[in-house]
Amino acid sequence: MPISRQDALKAIQIAKTLIRLNGKHRDMSGPPDPDRTAYGVVICVSGAACILLLYMALFGRRMRRTAIRWHVMNCSWWGILHLASYGSFAEKAPWPNYIISPEWTDSSKQVENFSRSIFPCGMFFVYIEVMITTCVPRLADNWIFNLIFFILVIPVLNIIVLFCFFAQWMAVEWFYTPVDFLTLLTYVLFCIMTAVYFLFCLFGSCLCCYTVASKKPQKRTVFTFVDMWLLFPYALIPDIMYGPSFGMTSVQFVFKFLYDWIKDSGLLEGGGDTTFVLDLMTAALNALPWFVLFFPLVQAMLAVVCIKMFRQQFFFLLSCGRLYNGPALPAPKLSKDWASKSKLMTSEGF
Which sequence ranges are marked TM in the entry (predicted)? Predict the structure, then answer.
């Protein structure tokens, strides 16, 4: 029976996969690498943190319909995908043979890029929502307002990211790989919005002083501004951890589009010592894989520490339901309840 061309191509692809796996097995046949073991431990712990965060975001009774909830949910499930891919295709991957899909193998870098772009892109919308609700607190319980940010953070954001990922297979000649350009654009927007939000926090601090000094009842309380400031480290620390990854992507972009301009401008000339810059780049490259591994875990820890509803839900789970055993409070009462006991909640009728 003659073999069709399609069957022959499949056989060749299977043979290539077996050869690749055989080579990886030979690489792993030596003494165990402690870095691989550490990678595996961190991936497992980070994955468990993502699953816990996803569970709280989906089913937590203290969860409110806000952009930060949808953002954490989105980061959690894409973070799990990112860890799964990194565990198979990283330079010192602990399980280099458990993903055998040729398509995934060829696109592993793009998968890691777009899954890392979820956090900065989602925080862009979270910043906007928090600034609006800090100025106009009554919008926090407006279902139309909440629906708008749900659509922006979940469907719109994911459609954009997936489009950029699959655009590399379209019959279109892009000036730059879409998913890599998305990584650059989202990080730049993220940094700009982080600076804008910091300025807004300074303005909010002045507004907080007015709120404290005012004798009239205010819709905003001191805890409103405490939560406003707590969002800043939640975004800033991952921003710093995300930096080396962005730097690797930006170097390729700079060399492709800006190198000639930089060379002609004379910025590379002069007698300055570049040792410090080279040492800094070397340290960033060495830290890159560890930042990538710890990013989901750090993001989960910061969500519990810095975001009120996740903090309350975590204590609910930790205390087996003895703390924060009621549903989420409406915005006016929530602003006055930063870390109260369950007795206070039951006295409110919950």
Answer: 38-58, 143-172, 184-210, 222-242, 287-307
CB < 8 Å & 24+ apart, contacts of 280-288: 281/247, 284/243, 284/244, 284/247, 285/244, 285/248, 287/244, 288/244, 288/245, 288/248
Please answer whether residues 74 and 154 qualify as being in contact, where contact means their C-beta atoms are separated by less than 8 angstroms.
Answer: yes
User: Could you tell me if 183 and 249 are in contact, meaning their C-beta atoms sit under 8 angstroms apart?
Assistant: yes
Task: Show me where the domains of the chain are located.
Answer: 34-262+284-338
Residues in the chain: 350
The Cα–Cα gap between 346 and 13 comes to: 63
pTM metric for this prediction: 0.77
Report helix angle 275-306 to 67-89, nearest 10. 130
Q: Please tell me the class of the 34-262+284-338 domain.
A: mainly alpha
CA 184-231-77 angle, 5° bins = 60
Torsion of CA 102, 83, 43, 34, to 10 degrees: 50
Q: What is the pLDDT of residue 57?
A: 92
Please give the backbone phi and psi of residue 342, each rounded to the nearest 5 degrees, phi first: -65, -25
Helices (H) and strands (E) in the chain, counts: 15, 0
Smallest CA-to-CA distance from 308 within 223, 198, 197 is with 223
Q: For the chain, how far is it from start to end, CA to CA, in angstroms?
A: 74
By the 8 A CB rule, do 238 and 292 touch? no
pLDDT band at 325 (very low <50, low <70, confident <90, very high): confident
Tell me the per-residue pLDDT of 52-99, one tens digit each, with 9 for 90 and over.
999 999 998 888 889 999 999 999 999 898 888 888 887 777 888 777
Nearest to 305 by CA among 224, 223, 227, 222: 227
